[in-house]
Amino acid sequence: MSDLIKLSVSRTKTFADCKKKYDYQYNLKLPKKIWDHHILGSCIHKILEEFHLHYLNGGTLKYNEAMKEAYIKGMEEFKDKLKPEMIAEIRSMADQYLRIVYKTKHHHVISCEKPFSMMVREDINVNGAIDRIQIDPDGVYHVGDYKTVRNEKYLVNEFFQLETYAYVVYTEHPEITKVRASYIMLRHGFKHITREIDLATMLKIPGKFIDYAEKITAEKEFPATPTPLCDYCDFQEVCPYDIRKKASSKKKTLSWV
After folding, report:
1. Which of 176, 210, 212 is CA-nearest to residue 196?
2. Using 50, 70 and 90 to split pLDDT, how confident is the model at 237?
3. Terminal CA-CA length for the chain
């Protein structure tokens, strides 16, 4: 048996976006740059996770009390990395979410930060974690992924992540024929970008990961793909390409973090 190939949605997206970045991150394992928006995202993810875990573990606190405890835990973990303006934004997000919960009664959330690991071929393992899974009032499983990006346009046609999560749910509940899936925009009042994913789409997921695995293992050069997003790359200081010059024509339209 050949060596195990480990994949995730983020690994495949990195390879698709820029093979040079993939090489730096996963082959050479260079240290990644720490961005404020990543820290902010990790903190609010932690807070929302702790909030729902309280009830999933049988807690009975009032919503505002459970959110207060979750907020304290999140702040304690990330306090040394947060700037004052980041703390203010996280507090605002937590408050917005609490208001939504009071209106919608999120008792239908059945798991959060659910880890998964699945073999799509005997030598290919796909792993990750799903931010939130709930069962909607109509009985449909609904997967959600929290996003802290400012510009939602780039997500409109980027549903591979949610399709993967839908397939994970299908592997555990093979009787279902569709899964509802949403990107949850934390910086846009928790707006949902939602798509219903049918069984035919879910069943294509293993093949897509196999295709990625074969392309990654066959790649030898790992060329760069310059875009305006290069300004937000973890490895811009070591990349030998004149990325800003090549991407400058599009830079003025960029606003995604």
Report:
1. 176
2. confident
3. 43
Q: Is pLDDT at 56 greater than 90 in this prediction?
A: yes
Give me the number of domains the chain comprises.
3
pLDDT of 241: 63
Q: In the predicted model, is pLDDT for residue 249 greater than 60? A: no
Both 235 and 155 in one domain: the answer is no
**Biggest alpha carbon–alpha carbon distance for the chain:** 56
Domain range holding 239? 13-30+218-250
DSSP character string of 142-189: EEEEEE--S--GGGTT--HHHHHHHHHHHHH-TT-SEEEEEEEEGGGT
Specify the pLDDT at position 121: 97
Provide the 3-class DSSP secondary structure of residue 126.
strand
Residue 165 burial (CB count, 10 A): 28
- Say what angle helices 63-78 and 84-104 make with each other, to 10 degrees: 150
Q: Which of 104, 138, 161 lies at the terminal end of a domain, its last residue?
A: 104
pLDDT of residue 99 exceeding 90, the answer is yes
Q: What is the pTM of this model?
A: 0.90
